[in-house]
Amino acid sequence: MRGKACVFMALVLAGCAKSEKGREPSAADAMTTEGASESADARGPGIALTAAPGVAFRYAYDFRLPAARISSTQEAHAQACEALGIARCRITGMRYAVGRGANDINATLDFKLEPGIARKFGTGGIDTVVKAGGRLGAVDITGTDAGGAIKAIDQESARQRADLDRIEAQLAKLPAKARDRVTLQDQADAIRRSLDANAASKGAQLQSLATTPMHFDYGTTDSFAGFDADSPIAIGLSLGQQSFLAALSLLTIVLAGGLPWAAIALVGWLIWRRLRDRFVRE
Predict the structure, then answer these.
(1) Could you give the residue ranges of the DSSP H alpha helices within 174-231?
(2) Which helix (H) or strand (E) holds 45?
């Protein structure tokens, strides 16, 4: 009986395994698989929010605007920073200077931004300039590998701490008046000073990752003062250019319309002249 029972159980288990292996996927299984696929497609590739982790960036924008709109644009940028709050954006410097002429203006504005919003803030700054009738002259984005520097500092500090532990262990074993004690003590003091310098350097690197500096530079639309779009000189040059183009267009129309008739007249005159000379000779 025991042998028959074992054979029966083996057959039952084999049948269950075959049924499980050969069964069609259920609707629940299909939905689970489809849902996982859709979720992966919605997320897209596994790209982090920043393409350069551990890099401390600095943004610098050069804007060209009509002279009369530099002040209002600079103020709009300052208000945008203030609206974010000092925890996310702080104004660290501002300059506005008028040169020899009323249209010779140069201004700057400096910020310290939360790294996550720096790029968006710069794009918004460009939009504000364009709405004011200006344009982006140049943008300079530089980065420093602060994460790599921090890693190197940590490795150097770990090595120095190991050296300091070894020296302190030697000092603990030496008599109070041992000749080598002064030398070892000097070495330990030098390592402690180096560790303090490393800590300060690491703090500076961490600070560079915590905030992103941004610089806005405002200048007149053109390189020469007085030639921006709203200046009398620029308006006069624009009117002169338009008048010249209008005269050139009119001359082209006249020539295009009159040349065929002038050519016909010239051919007729040449024919008449040749016939006249022939009649005269006869």
Answers:
(1) 181-210
(2) none
Which tens digit of pLDDT belongs to each residue from 218-235? 998 754 444 445 555 666
Give the amino acid at 97: A
Angle (nearest 5°) at CA 38 between 36 and 41: 110
Find the range with the poorest average confidence among 142-156, 185-199, 250-264: 250-264
Q: 119 exposed, middle or buried (CB, 10 Å; 0-12, 13-18, 19+)?
A: middle
C-alpha span between 207 and 148 (Å, rounded):
14
The answer to whether 108 and 93 have CB atoms below 8 angstroms apart is yes
As a three-state string, the secondary structure of 23-37 is: CCCCHHHHHHHHHHH
pLDDT band at residue 152 using 50, 70 and 90 as cut-offs? very high
Q: How far is Cα of residue 182 from the mean position of the Cα atoms in its chain? A: 55
Q: How many residues does the chain have?
A: 282
Tell whether pTM > 0.70. no
The beta strand positions in 66-189, using DSSP E, are 89-98, 105-113, 135-145
Q: Which residue has the tokens 């074992």?
A: 6
| In contact, 108 and 91? CB cutoff 8 Å | no
What is d(CA 70, CA 64) in angstroms, rounded to the nearest whole number? 9
Position with higher pLDDT, 239 vs 162 = 162
Pairwise CA distance, residues 205 & 148, whole Å: 10
Q: Is 133 left (phi over 0), alpha (psi -120 to 50) or beta?
A: left
The two three-digit tokens of residue 211, written as one number: 């905030």
pLDDT of 261 reads 79
**Contacts of residue 209, Cβ cutoff 8 Å, sequence gap at least 6:** 54, 56, 115, 146, 147
